[in-house]
Amino acid sequence: xxxxxxxxxxxxxxxxxxxxxxxxxxxxxxxxxxxxxxxxxxxxxxxxxxxxxxxxxxxxxxxxxxxxxxxxxxxxxxxxxxxxxxxxxxxxxxxxxxxxxxxxxxxxxxxxxxxxxxxxxxxxxxxxxxxxxxxxxxxxxxxxxxxxxxxxxxxxxxxxxxxxxxxxxxxxxxxxxxxxxxxxxxxxxxxxxxxxxxxxxxxxxxxxxxxxxxxxxxxxxxxxxxxxxxxxxxxxxxxxxxxxxxxxxxxxxxxxxxxxxxxxxxxxxxxxxxxxxxxxxxxxxxxxxxxxxxxxxxxxxxxxxxxxxxxxxxxxxxxxxxxxxxxxxxxxxxxxxxxxxxxxxxxxxxxxxxxxxxxxxxxxxxxxxxxxxxxxxxxxxxxxxxxxxxxxxxxxxxxxxxxxxxxxxxxxxxxxxxxxxxxxxxxxxxxxxxxxxxxxx
Length: 441
Prior knowledge:
Blueprint (H helix, E strand, L loop, with lengths): L2 E2 L17 E5 L4 E7 L5 E3 L9 E2 L1 E5 L5 E3 H9 L4 E5 L13 E4 L2 E4 H20 L5 E6 L8 H17 L4 E6 H10 L6 E8 L4 E8 L13 E7 L3 H12 L19 H6 L11 H9 L7 H12 L3 H18 L3 E4 L8 E4 L1 H26 L6 E5 L6 H10 L4 E4 L5 H15 L7
Parallel strand pairs: 1-19, 2-11, 11-12, 13-18, 18-19
Antiparallel strand pairs: 2-3, 3-4, 3-5, 6-7, 6-8, 9-10, 13-14, 14-15, 16-17
C-alpha cells in the first residue's frame, strides 16, 4: 500500500474546437472551488480566495457596516469578534424545506435561498475577474445523493442548486456527479487502462464511483459505459466536526452532565450548537429561553453559565472552527492537539488525541468504508487497481487507515483535495460545450 504525493497537472492540454468558456463549480458544504479550460485548452483552477483555490462556503453579514463578506474574509471577520451573522454549510439545506425559510440578518428577513444566491453571485464575480470575460456557462457538481433514499427531495435539491446559479447570472447549466468529475480529472494522468474507485469525501457527503479509465477516452462525452457503479452516503467532514465537538467541547457546557434528580441535562441545545447549519436555531428567542430555564437541571452552575455565555455571545461557529482546526492538525501530525476555548473561560482547553479521534469517529468511518466496499461490489469487480482520494476530508488519517485495511491490495492515490472535482467538471464542461450538447438554458 502506498500513499502517493498529490498528482501533477495534466501533461497534455485538452484541445477542442471553438466553444463557450465553461466554469466547473464544485459548491461544497465546507469549501467551494472552480476551474475552467481556457481558449488554448489548458486547465486553470481559479484562485477564488486570494492565492488559495478553495474558498470557504461562508457568508458573513457585518452588523455595524452592513457589509457582506465571503470565504476566508467571512471567517476572519467572525472569528475576530466582529458583530454580525455568519452563514455556513448552506449546501446542507438543499432538498429541505429550510432553504425557503427566512432568517433574521441584522434586522432584515432573508431567505436562506437568497443567501445562497449571494454566494453564487460572488463566486461568479471572482471567476470572471480571473477569466477576464463574462461567464454564462456552468458545469455544476452534485453529490451522488443530496438526500439519502428520497429521489423526490434529491431532484428538488439539484433544481434548487441550478435555480441559484441561474439567479446569480449563469444562463446555461449542466450537472455532473462529483466523484465522476474527480475521476475525469484523474484520467488526464493515467497511462493505461485501469479501474479506479474514486473516493470523494466532502463536507456533507461521501461519494464513490468505480470507473474504467483510459487516456484515449479523455475526449468522449458519454462515459456511461465506463461508469461501473456509484454510491454515496450523507456523512462527511461536518459530521466528523459535530461528533468531535460533542465528545470534546459540549461536555464542558453540560452535555451528558448528570444534574438534579440524577437525570442528564436535555441535549437538544448541544446538538444544534455542534451542527454547522443548525447553529442559528440555538440563538432564537425560544431556544434561548429554553436554555436559561435549564439552570434547574444542572448540578454544576458553572457549566450552565458557560452554556449561556456561548449562546449569548454566539460562539457556536467559533467552537466548531476550533474543533475543525484541531481535527486537521491531529490528523496530519498524529499527536495530541489542543482545542483552545479561552473565549469561554480563561485557559479552558480540551485535548484531542489521535486515539480519541479514531474512537469517536469509528462508527461514522465504518459506514463510509462500507459504502465504498458496496460500490466496488456493485461494479462486479473483485478489486480495483487504485483508490483515488479527493475532497476536503479525504486526508483524515483514521479514514485512510480504515480504507487501507478494507482494501489492502489497492494503491491509494491522493489527488487535489480541493481542486480535483472542479478540474474534472471543467474538463467535462469543455467537452460537452465543444460538441454542443448537455447544457440547459
